[in-house]
């Protein structure tokens, strides 16, 4: 037994260190994943400050790991949460971080997100072209995952350029993806976007737009998605204000705004409060 050759001690220690580091990275990834899923859920439920807090912890954990792969994985989800929070610069930062990934699909997703960030920053033509190009690339890879939301971005940017027919076609595509896949996270928002497009296209579309907003509110209530409900109610309240139904607008907006206990510095709540003040609420 004594003649059995033992592996060099240094190699064994090195391997042990590698395994220990690997376990540590996996542990940090698991912790970061839990925080970012929590952030996602909290935003939908109407707790944007807590969502941002969990998101910040998740990102800090990825940085602690020192792994670009881990950071890219978490940042890929952070893109959407920052967009939900209407924080375009942080969204851009996360999208740029995920470009480090070698996956074709992930790179295309990052490019789509960067196209939206470009559009939000005012480069509508460039942003639309970037989104269109990489949406095609992404869907050619065989997936429609998240495309309902990407198409809502695309439609919104097209609408800002007055290209309403193309924008509404993108919305129809988004609804088709929702129905095929059954994932309804963004369904309420797609209805709201449709209403905004219809209203911007022609004031005579007010009745159709109102129906879209009310459908968005109904869906968000069913899902208990208070943040979507706030957005849809704000859109509807503007329409009601402009069609001489200010009392109804004020009452419904005051009701949903009054539910919130945090997030008053976020863009959505600021918009709602400004409209509520205008309505005399």
Describe this protein's structure:
Helix 7 packs antiparallel against helix 8. The chain has helices spanning 9-45, 48-65, 68-84, 88-98, 104-120, 124-140, 147-160, 164-181, 187-201, 206-223, 226-242, 246-259, 267-278. It is built from 13 helices and no strands. Helices cover 80% and strands 0% of the residues. The chain starts with 8 loop residues before the first helix and ends with a helix. With 281 residues, it is mainly alpha-helical.
Keywords:
281 residues; mainly alpha; 80% helix; 0% strand; disordered N terminus
Question: What's the topology here?
Answer:
Blueprint: H1 9-45, H2 48-65, H3 68-84, H4 88-98, H5 104-120, H6 124-140, H7 147-160, H8 164-181, H9 187-201, H10 206-223, H11 226-242, H12 246-259, H13 267-278
Question: Could you give the distance between the termini?
Answer: 87 Å
Biggest β-sheet description: none
Number of strands: 0
C-alpha geometry: globular
What is the CA-based Rg, rounded? 23 Å
Computed structural class: mainly alpha
Approximately how much helix is present in the residues? over 70%
Mean pLDDT: 90
In what range is the share of β-strand residues?
Answer: under 5%
Low-confidence stretches: 1-11, 13-17
Run of helices and strands: HHHHHHHHHHHHH
SS field, number of helical segments: 13
């Amino acid at each position: 037994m004594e003649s059995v050759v033992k592996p060099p001690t240094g190699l064994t220690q090195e391997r042990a260190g590698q395994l220990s580091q690997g376990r540590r990275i996996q542990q940090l990834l698991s912790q970061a994943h839990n925080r970012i899923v929590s952030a996602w859920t909290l935003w939908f439920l109407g707790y944007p400050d807590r969502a941002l807090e969990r998101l910040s912890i998740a990102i800090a954990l990825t940085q602690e790991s020192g792994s670009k792969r881990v950071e890219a994985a978490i940042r890929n989800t952070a893109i959407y949460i920052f967009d939900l929070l209407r924080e375009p610069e942080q969204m851009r930062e996360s999208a740029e971080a995920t470009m480090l990934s070698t996956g074709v699909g992930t790179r295309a997703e990052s490019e789509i997100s960067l196209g939206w960030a470009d559009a939000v920053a005012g480069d509508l033509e460039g942003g639309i072209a970037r989104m269109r190009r990489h949406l095609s690339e992404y869907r050619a890879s065989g997936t429609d995952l998240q495309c309902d939301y990407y198409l809502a971005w695309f439609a919104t940017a097209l609408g800002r350029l007055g290209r309403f027919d193309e924008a509404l076609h993108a919305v129809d595509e988004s609804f088709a993806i929702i129905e095929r896949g059954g994932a309804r996270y963004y369904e309420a928002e797609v209805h709201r976007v449709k209403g905004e497009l219809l209203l911007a296209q022609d004031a005579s579309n007010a009745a159709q737009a109102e129906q879209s907003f009310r459908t968005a509110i109904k869906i968000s209530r069913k899902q208990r998605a208070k943040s979507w409900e706030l957005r849809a109610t704000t859109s509807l309240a503007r329409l009601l204000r402009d069609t001489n139904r200010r009392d109804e607008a004020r009452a419904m907006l005051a009701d949903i705004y009054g539910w919130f206990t945090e997030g008053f510095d976020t863009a959505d709540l600021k918009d709602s409060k400004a409209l509520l003040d205008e309505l005399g609420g």
